[in-house]
Every structure is written in C-alpha cells, then in structure tokens.
Amino acid sequence: MPRRTTRIDRSRVRTQPARRRASKVRTKDEARPLPPGSSVAELLDSLPDLLGAADLNAAIDAWARAWQRDRLVLFGFGAHLIKVGLAPIVVDLMERGAISALMMNGAGCVHDLELAMMGRTSEDVGPALDEGRFGMAKETAERLNAAIARGRDDGLGMGAAIGREIAGSKDRHVGRSVLANAWRLGIPVTVHAAIGTDVHHMHPSADGAAIGETSYRDFEQLASLVADLEGGVMLNVGSAVILPEVFLKALALARNLGHRVERFTTVNCDFVRQYRPETNVVDRPTRLGGRGLSLVGQHEILIPLLAAGAIERKAKAEARPKRSRATRRTPGARRRPGGGQGGGES
Asked: pLDDT for 23-35, tens place per residue?
C-alpha cells in the first residue's frame, strides 16, 4: 500500500519583515561602472565588495601594507608563472622592493635559464616524448648542473648558484631573468627540487648529491625567512604540491624553534582550488590569527593585476596625510559582508 501523506498547509507559514532579516549583500557593495581613462586603482575600487573581488582587494591590501611596513613578502611560484611571460612583472616588483624573498620549484630554473639564454622555452612534450627527445637539450642541462655543482662547492643554495650563473653570463635576455636579478639585488631565492622531476636530472652531468645539498641549504634558508613572517605576506602562485608542502614544514620548524609566526596573510593563486594549497597555504598556517585567501584565475591576468594593485595602493597610502592616533583606522580595513572564498605544478 502506498503511504498517504498530508498536504502541507502553507497558510500557517510564519513570516518576518524583510528589513529585519540579516542580509549579506547591500547596494553599497555592488560594482560601479568604470568611465574611460580610469586607473588600475579606480578599477579595483569599482569592483563589488563581495566574494572573489573582496578577496582580491584583501590580498592587495595585505601586500601593500606589508611592503609599506617593511615586513616580509615571500613570493612563491611554480614554473608556469615563467612560461606564461610573467618574469618581467616579478623583476619589476623586486626592483621596487615589493618582494623580499622568492621560493620556487626546480622547473622554474629550467625555463628562466632558457628564456635568458635563447629567448624561448617550453618544448612540445608529447611528440618529443614519443621520439625519446624530451628534456634532452644539451646546453640547458650542462649549464644548470655545472652551476649547481659550483654552488655546492662554494657553499651556496641552488637559487643563488643558478642566479649567479645567469647573472655572470653573456646571455642576451639576462635582464628579464628572475634568478639573475635576485642575485644582482641580493634578494634570497630558494629552489626546492624533487629528484627526478626536472629535465636536467636525466643528464650525465647531473650530480644528485649537489642537487640535494644545494636544495637543502635553500630549505634551511626558507625556514629562516618564514621565522620572520609575522605581519608579512606569503603568496603561492601555481605550485600545487612542492611549495605548499615545503612551506608547511618550514613554518613548523620556525615555530618549533620558538619563533612567533602567527599573524600573517597567505594568498594562493591558481586556476582551480586544490587540496594541498588550500590546506597547507590557506587554512592550516593561519589558524592562530592570520588570514588565508584563495584567488582563482589565470596567472597571466591575475598576477599583473595583483602587482599593479599593490603598487598603486602603497603609493596611495604613502601620499595620504598622517592622521592622529585617535582617528587612525587600520589600513586596508574593509567590511566584507559577502564573506570570503576560502579556499598546477609545471
């Protein structure tokens, strides 16, 4: 027998006045049309103060504030950032003092060197793999492996060793190299290699002991940097596994040694939200009082926008007349009624 159900009586519904109900979205949070000739700062201010747009502005606020206060801005990235043409943006940020230190995966070194050396990079993997030619570029491997071996002998980490090699070369495009400019400017750059993941590891010139020793020196340097992250910002651009894992261990080591690293901002930027970046960059590190943000979008659009926003917002803050302590508000403090969107390696 089918069960008989009683028809619901909607005449008994209890209502409430709409104006007394809590609401997440208000007209004051809506976007504003942008007139022609507007600046990047005006574009950012015109965005709706909701969800992803609110998180974008929060990330820019945190970056500009850390930069202005001379706190650590740790900029981490996977190789994809180099491959989509963003090295000049990173170099400009370093020149301006907007980046205090860099961390990257091993593949980034390959593409940074090749672009400096010959103005092009990123082979077509499928056909090359079919023919047994993938990753077999002679000069790329020999220069990287030789630089790492010399760096090991000289007590350098991998980032400094490869940066020194490119900076001291006659490469035509050395001016756009992230590693070379970091070396020139004295900005720490740590490279976190996983043995077997990078093309130069396949070549006879590769020295596993040198790769391991120089990359481990960089891990120790990263832990020292993270120990000073209080009040600063850490960005992870496109590394889905290596950097989230390395950063979490560096943070654990810094805290274990007694360093207070609690109130800081982390920003993860990628095409999609993935487990490790969301967990090891956005969520776990900021449990003690910091803030984690996720920005989803293509690097070649999102990173230039973030960079331009941080430059504009710092300049605006520095041009603003200083107010008395009694009337001063926290820089970058904005109401976020819509909540935040919480939360590939190449």
From this structure: 888 888 888 888 8
